[in-house]
Amino acid sequence: MVKDSIKIGIILDSPVVPLWIYRVVNKIVDSEFAEIKLVVYNTKAGNNPPKISLFYKLHEKLEQFIFRNRIDFSNKASLNQILRGVHETSICNNFTDTCHEISLNRLDIILNFSSFVINDSGLKLSRMGIWNYTIECQNIFEINSNVYWKVVNKSPVIRAFLQCSNGSSGSTTVIHCSWLATNFNSTLLNLDQAFELCALIIPRLIRGIYLYGYEYSNMLAKKYHKTDKDTASTVSPLPSNGQAMMNMSRILVRYLYQRLMVNKQWKWFLMYTFKPSPFPETITSYESLIPPKDRFWADPFVLCRNSKKFIFIEEFPYRKKKGHISLLELDMTGKLVTRNTILEKPYHMSYPFVFEHGNGYYMIPETSENRTVELYKCSVFPLEWSYVMNLMDNINAKDTTLYYYNNKWWLFAAINESSSFSEHAELFLFYSDDVTTTDWTPHPCNPIVTDIRTARPAGRIFTHNNKIYRPSQDCSVRYGRALNINQIITLNETSYKEVLISKTEATWHYRLKGVHTLNFDKDLSVIDVYKF
After folding, report:
1. Cα separations in angstroms, 111 against 40, 73, 343, 430, 445
2. How far apart are the first and last CA of the chain?
3. Which residues of 423-450 are buried (b: 16+ CB within 10 A; e: fewer)?
């Protein structure tokens, strides 16, 4: 049975729109799951720009010059060609007449990409309401002073909301929220990131409604219901001339300092303890395991077998500028006995997720540079490994982590669907009855986590006192800044829920910048930390 496509209406100030809106509309027009049935033009759009200080304008011009090679999502593009033939109307002085005309089209969703605000929540102009995108609680057509102050004050995350109003429920709800890492050098780069994300989010959610039905939108509302109150934040005032001058100077010095730090080598090393430690709360009891000076060690995975203690790691020789998988063996005192390279490819390899299945051992190293999720099997334990298959192809997936639960394999991976995002801020979940397959079913809640502070995996999922825990990275401020332990509350084919239980930051020594991965087996626990 062929499903009916989702009927979309859009409200615009003009057919000439910012690039990010053009991308959203173009994806919908090119899709097989939705069609644009109506365009409503806001003829009331006016030009009443706020008063902006001279140094704020100068700061913006300076950013545009420094980051001139970026994709500028505020650039204009015309929708006339791709919307040719779509019925048009405009917002009349008598808005009741406009509402009547809109309702005649029996729309499923209205996307409001205009400066027009519909305040009457009693209106039911479409079956699933009017969707509005906001960044840090400000209208997308305003100068975003909230993002500006986030940069100035080095706030770790910027929030992007998709809200649904005027639907059948008669209320306004958040149906998506992303927490993105703040770039401390540029307001424009942060806005570009949030705008590009919107071009992913809206088509993704519309497709979800097409696949899973009307209940999908209710599921989204439940998922983000706790963020509703966050959308009511106040709008910060734009800076005065003196404030803007001081802020511009601070951010410019910050940018120049970061440029000087670009070539600094990140020095990752391992720390271990022989005490079982699923929750790394007593880091001071850990001993250091330092690599040779020409390389770093990271992403430790632990196996203790037959009184031997093995640590599978990413080994990164600086001169090669790519990682491979190595194996360390420790004796009972923690002394390094042997070090062997066990997997090396022309592309970067890291995060050697090792697991036991049947009568053998398998590994899924991170191979996102090759755009694959690869499976290897150990032919002679623990040194010889053979390629089995690609579980997934043409995918930018980081730190794939499997967990066997309720007779299914659950595959967690941080996936970046945009080539220009610097970090992986979204966690995706798939499931299958068999581990050696390419047939992985995407979870309907994907992405199950949309927060740079908790999305990316940081080690094996484990059980403790009959509860399931997922280690993850906090990559706000910088990559691998802190280590989280999240408790998985719900894991099934239709729902996923986790809550943050603890966070470990590298505060026990002034030179450390982050703690990144946790794994343990029997009496050996290992983390990795870094400095530069």
Report:
1. 10, 18, 49, 29, 21
2. 59
3. bbbbbbbbbbeebeeeebeebbbbbbbb
> What's at 122, amino acid-wise?
G
Burial (0-12, 13-18, 19+ Cβ within 10 Å), 81: exposed
pLDDT reported for residue 1 = 47
317 alpha-carbon distance from chain centroid: 28
Q: Report the distance separating Cα 133 and Cα 306, nearest Å.
A: 56
Q: Is the confidence at residue 92, as pLDDT, over 90?
A: no
pLDDT in tens, 362-384: 999 999 999 999 999 999 999 99
Residues 173 and 148: beta-carbon distance below 8 Å: no
Neighbours of 416 (CB within 10 A): 17
What is the C-alpha separation between 478 and 156, in angstroms, rounded? 9
Q: What b/e string do you get for 247-266 counting C-beta neighbours within 10 Å, with b at 16 or more?
A: bbeebeeebeeeeeeeeeeb
Strand, coil or helix: 422: coil
110-169 pLDDT tens trace = 999 998 888 655 678 899 999 999 999 888 888 899 999 999 999 999 999 999 986 555
Cβ atoms 266, 251 nearer than 8 A: no
